[in-house]
Design a protein that fits this description.
Elements: E1 6-10, H1 18-34, E2 38-42, H2 49-55, E3 60-63, H3 74-81, H4 91-98, H5 100-109, E4 117-120, H6 126-136, E5 141-145, E6 155-157, H7 160-168, E7 176-180, E8 185-192, E9 199-200, E10 204-208, H8 215-219, E11 224-227, H9 234-251, E12 256-263, E13 269-275, H10 285-292, H11 297-306
Parallel strand pairs: 1-2, 1-3
Antiparallel strand pairs: 4-7, 5-6, 5-7, 8-9, 8-10, 8-12, 10-11, 12-13
């Protein structure tokens, strides 16, 4: 018997990933309607979105939101205060997954391989911090926001004279970091299920036309080639899936997630990010991986919903 008959889908919002969220949300809404649910769409860009949520009589919430404020535990805390079941990870796992520095600290404690990093403090001497990053991490260096998704604000720097400029460019983001650039295959591993049903999906290899899997490559059709299963030996694929599972559990993720990694020249996987609300658009990684495992889009949405 179904737990819900009437659902609210939260989509859109005001983060830098609004357009992606709208695409995810519309596709989720269509799937839920196909499966016979009554669905109400709510966009947190509206000032009265909480009032809308309270008056919809929704029995549960499907989160199709992405980005800061929505994937970092904030909206999860609101929903818990309202007593509404919701999809995806809880408050703490969402907060850890969104803050790349905090996630890395957990990974290091749990001996999960992740690229070296240094926080950037925009209020302190940037030249000194750039010099320390060059000395301690070395080139190439990745400059990225600590708490953004979809590769927003990410740049790869190969020369000292361009490093400060890359940092300055990210002043609109509150927190930033330096990260070691790992040369190798970009892969991602989706996970779905809870308890004994938690499992990894086939490893997806990403070959973007751009220098890396940036925002344009992620959301522009034809800009990235998907290879499933990834061009890895069975042993390396199993290691990558094992590392992904450990990362998911280390952060306390729930229901589903997607773990992004780089496989270096010695076939060692390095976790770069755990996405606690991965995209569900037509071009998104997780649905592609589910499809490769024989799970249709509607089945994927149904299982995510069941895990609330």
């Amino acid at each position: 018997m179904r737990r819900f008959s009437r659902l609210a889908v939260l989509l859109g919002g005001v983060s830098g990933e609004r357009e992606v969220s709208l695409q995810s949300g519309q596709r989720v809404v269509a799937s839920l309607k196909r499966q016979g649910y009554q669905v109400v769409e709510i966009d947190p860009i509206d000032e009265d979105w909480l009032d809308q949520l309270r008056t919809t009589a929704a029995e549960g919430v499907f989160l199709a939101l992405h980005g800061k404020g929505y994937e970092d535990g904030t909206v999860q805390a609101i929903l818990e205060s309202l007593g509404l079941p919701y999809t995806g990870s809880g408050i703490l796992a969402s907060a850890l997954g969104m803050n790349k520095i905090m996630a890395k600290r957990v990974f290091q404690t749990m001996e999960i391989p992740t690229p070296a990093y240094m926080p950037i403090n925009l209020e302190l001497d940037l030249d000194q911090q750039c010099e320390e990053a060059i000395e301690q991490i070395g080139f190439p260096l990745v400059v990225k926001p600590t708490s953004e998704g979809s590769s927003l604000g990410v740049s790869i720097v190969y020369q000292a004279e361009k490093l400060r400029r890359a940092v300055e460019k990210n002043r609109d983001f509150q927190e930033n970091m330096f990260e070691q650039y790992i040369q190798g295959k970009e892969i991602t591993v989706g996970l779905i299920g809870i308890g004994s049903q938690l499992r990894t999906l086939p490893v997806l290899e990403l070959i973007p036309q751009n220098k890396f899997y940036d925002y344009e490559a992620k959301y522009t059709e034809g800009m990235t080639q998907f290879i499933i299963p990834a061009r890895l030996s069975e042993t390396v694929s199993q290691i990558a899936q094992s590392v992904a599972l450990r990362a998911h559990l280390a952060l306390g993720c729930h229901g589903y997630s997607r773990v992004d990694m780089i496989i270096n020249e010695t076939e060692q996987p390095f976790v770069t990010e755990v996405n606690t609300l991965p995209g569900l658009t037509e071009l998104s990684d997780l649905p592609a991986q589910a499809g490769a495992a024989g799970i249709s889009y509607d089945q994927l949405i149904a299982e995510i919903l069941e895990s609330t």
